[in-house]
């Protein structure tokens, strides 16, 4: 089982409005856990010149790096004014998701925090969003912070639990974050009954379905008890007959969705498998209006 205590947090920032909320979340967790806070900004890779001898790309790269360092300097100054200590400021050049993931592994960060802008479905289909690339490419837990000012800190944490090792890791980290802010924690497990046969269920069929449902409920309650003992935090449970992602949204509730942190484990599927199966973490990330925590499996974390 995962020990969720964090010693290093990496905040990825682009200096835009969404980054302010992400900074607040990262700073809050860092201060309450006593973890080092590192900040990174990634600027786009400069293409090589189209003809030999040109220095345009070198000049642009140097200018972009200077702007990146100035952005970090300003954000670092604002953070320190608010009493937040920055352990390290990092500048990288290249694809944001790839560079952030690499730095997180290099630092051995226990959590990556990033803001998220609204991206239209057409653009996401063609290029993908940075947040999705980060979630699926990182070997570290990733907290994507979105929503208005009221979205952080969360008042409620809803965790999708399917009994897998990745879900257990998400349970622990989500409950520990919830305990920092006194937030309510609910473990959600979704299930689907087989299609009803022609002529309806027999008495024996209904008895077997009831027994299976009872076992599911007992398993979920047992998991909640284990998690409560580990985190010293009260854990609620909800069992819903529907798919996992809709179940989490139902429990979050429309009015409270922005103030609810949704947490899921990720099996580390490849791009093709995600496209074919539409992973739960992808569905949650695309549909949530508030913050989302995605925790990779132990196998993915060991990459």
Describe this structure in words.
With 303 residues, the chain is an alpha/beta fold. The protein folds into 2 domains: 1-146, 3-Layer(aba) Sandwich (Rossmann fold); 147-303, Rossmann fold, CATH 3.40.50. It is built from 11 helices and 10 strands. Strands 3-2-1-4-5-10-9-6-7-8 form a 10-stranded mixed β-sheet, sandwiched between helices. It starts with 7 loop residues before the first strand and ends with a helix. Residues 119-128 and 269-277 have low confidence and may be disordered.
Please state how the strands of the largest beta sheet are arranged side by side: 3-2-1-4-5-10-9-6-7-8
Binned, the helix content reads 40-55%
- Average pLDDT over all residues: 80
Q: What is the CATH architecture annotation of the largest domain?
A: 3-Layer(aba) Sandwich
The CATH homologous superfamily of the largest domain: HUPs
Could you name the key traits of this structure?
303 residues; alpha/beta; Rossmann fold; 10-stranded mixed sheet; 11 helices; 48% helix; 20% strand; Universal stress protein family; Rossmann-like_a/b/a_fold
């Amino acid at each position: 089982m995962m020990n969720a205590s964090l010693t290093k947090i990496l905040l990825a920032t682009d200096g835009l409005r969404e980054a302010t909320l992400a900074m607040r979340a990262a700073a809050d967790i860092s201060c309450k856990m006593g973890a080092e806070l590192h900040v990174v900004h990634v600027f786009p890779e400069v293409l090589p010149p189209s003809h030999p001898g040109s220095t345009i790309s070198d000049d642009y790269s140097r200018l972009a790096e200077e702007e990146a360092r100035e952005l970090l300097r300003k954000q670092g100054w604002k953070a320190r004014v608010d009493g937040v200590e920055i352990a390290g400021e990092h500048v990288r050049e290249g694809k944001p998701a790839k560079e952030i993931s690499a730095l997180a592994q290099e630092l051995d960060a226990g959590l990556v925090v990033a803001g998220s802008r609204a991206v239209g479905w057409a653009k996401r289909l063609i290029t993908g969003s940075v947040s999705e690339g980060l979630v699926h490419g990182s070997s570290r837990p990733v907290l994507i912070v979105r929503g208005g000012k009221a979205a952080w800190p969360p008042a409620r944490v809803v965790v999708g639990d399917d009994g897998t090792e990745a879900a257990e890791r998400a349970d622990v980290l989500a409950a520990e974050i919830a305990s920092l802010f006194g937030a309510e924690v609910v473990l959600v497990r979704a299930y689907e009954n087989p299609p009803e046969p022609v002529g309806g269920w027999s008495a024996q069929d209904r008895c077997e379905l009831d027994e299976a449902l009872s076992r599911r409920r007992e398993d979920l309650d047992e998991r909640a008890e284990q998690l409560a003992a580990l985190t010293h935090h009260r854990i609620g449970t909800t069992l819903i007959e529907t798919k996992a992602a809709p179940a989490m949204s139902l429990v979050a509730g429309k009015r409270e969705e922005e103030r609810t942190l949704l947490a899921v484990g990720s099996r580390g599927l490849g791009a093709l498998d995600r496209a074919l199966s539409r992973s739960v973490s992808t569905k949650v990330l695309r549909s949530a209006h508030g913050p989302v925590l995605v925790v990779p499996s132990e196998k993915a974390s060991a990459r």
